[in-house]
Amino acid sequence: MKVVNHKxxxxxxxxxxxxxxxxxxxxxxxSLTGERQILIRHEVLGLAPAARLRxxxxxxxxxxxxxxxxxxxxxxxxxxxxxxxxxxxxGDWVMAMGGSWQRYSLSDGERVFKVDVDLxxxxxxxxxxxxxxxxAWTGLRQIGHPRPGETVVVSAxxxxxxxxxxxxAKAWHCDxxxxxxxxxxxxxxxxxxxxxACVDYRHPDFPESLAAACPxxxxxxxxxxxxxxxDAVWPQLNQNARVVVCGLISEYNTAGRREPSxxxxxxxxxxxxxxxxxxxxxHLSRRAEFVEEVGELYKKGCxxxxxDASRGLGRVPEAFIAMLRGGxxxxxxxxxxx
Amino acid sequence: MKVVNHKxxxxxxxxxxxxxxxxxxxxxxxSLTGERQILIRHEVLGLAPAARLRxxxxxxxxxxxxxxxxxxxxxxxxxxxxxxxxxxxxGDWVMAMGGSWQRYSLSDGERVFKVDVDLxxxxxxxxxxxxxxxxAWTGLRQIGHPRPGETVVVSAxxxxxxxxxxxxAKAWHCDxxxxxxxxxxxxxxxxxxxxxACVDYRHPDFPESLAAACPxxxxxxxxxxxxxxxDAVWPQLNQNARVVVCGLISEYNTAGRREPSxxxxxxxxxxxxxxxxxxxxxHLSRRAEFVEEVGELYKKGCxxxxxDASRGLGRVPEAFIAMLRGGxxxxxxxxxxx
Lengths: 338, 338
Known about the structure:
By secondary structure, the first copy, chain A, is α/β, with parallel strands linked by helices.
């Protein structure tokens, strides 16, 4: 079994927002070379803002930065087209955590999970039932601990992680307020996702509108954004509030260098819990539990999915850049054509 | 039973570091007036920096600020001189959480605990076996979760809370590094408290010395200080480090208004846990467990106690101010004379 693979590699380290020339496509031949290997043909790629974190040279504290020439990290859903691994068979649908931005991937089966495309279509296994949903679920379960009736605020509420977190908190009987950019996204958050309110951070009255939308203060803040959005939530935090720092998309392009931090004194006097959280392999141990709980809610129709789809491997860089600019509604996915 | 009480009340809200004229002494008569009451004659008062937090008007998010004319909040150890309460008898030694800066206090028995002066002398029930030790123990147990072999850094390491936290972490087989102001305190931290190292934050090479003292990075930072001390620890934090924000003494006099916060981006990429912690009544539920564990370590000689003692109610304001300036070594206590 030999295939021609196309992959997108990092051509240059982005300075600020990435540009298309920071990436380039490389062709190679792939084949099974030993025992316990699988060859996966990707059908859909899932793009996530956190990939930007690994493109800079300055973020070595999180994970080794990508090398120039390395295939860009990302998740993929596809089918197995060749297997010498006893756990996988040709034709199996799988989600590959480390599939990366390419048409095919070779794997030893680690971080590759079979997915049930009868329960949910392939792309949902990249978003709500994939890494985005797992990040939302883990962040809420392990850090946010939202209790019924508490006010939960979610930034980037219409994004892949945000829409998962907001809907989960709602399913757990919390009072959920979203934050998103622009009237179209805010309408989507209330009408499609069913949040009680959504506040537009681009509006000049944003801090006041947010305060008005949270008359009982904020008990859990699930933050994907950082920067000024976080600064507006900060004064609304209640005593013993929990802040899940799941993303800082407003600061990724600068690695946080230009952003002032929120008033630290409140950490003490409000007895806040603030915890940074990146989905890492350690969280995969609870993936089965997550899929069972969230899959069940999805099947019941309690959770809705919006995807922001493009088509063709060549469109991946521009879809990624558009997502970093906040252009997406829901999970950003790219379907791969022949 | 009628007694003449002297109490120290807030005369004016301090601006910055308090001055003696922010306080004044008031005389009054106290007596048991009903059922289930006790009258306690204080023998020792314990002073804590956190009292400063309540003297400003701006800290209402933590607890109602003190009113002008209100007796200053603090702990006291003393003996019961009158009781109509079935749980207490005349002669009992007790620690009164809300005893305050006065010679006597009347109480309904809430937040009053009998203490064993054979196990430890009265003043120890204000420090290591009192609120300071309980804050250290709770902060480590509930937030820091130090594991054997991990590096634990404690600021204000020779203070009442800091010396308790540092010695507890050491007793739990952690590698403990203290931070203190000046060579005398640093020597005390290594020689008397037995810490592996102590770094002087007043020295111009402080950040470099701290980094050198923590070759494996920092897993738990127990912070009592904030400001520049915290800023020097911050870059040394390891992935998944825990920061217990138990005090911000460097910022109390300004309520944090002038201090920049540490780089927020690290919260995400290092997946830090940061949690503010003030000893409140909810923590008293585990006091018995704390006294059993820490009392046992004290009895075995594993934990040492240093007190910074003055004598006479009139000396309380100046002892408090000296403590806020960092002049104390160990728990600041004031013995009350007739």
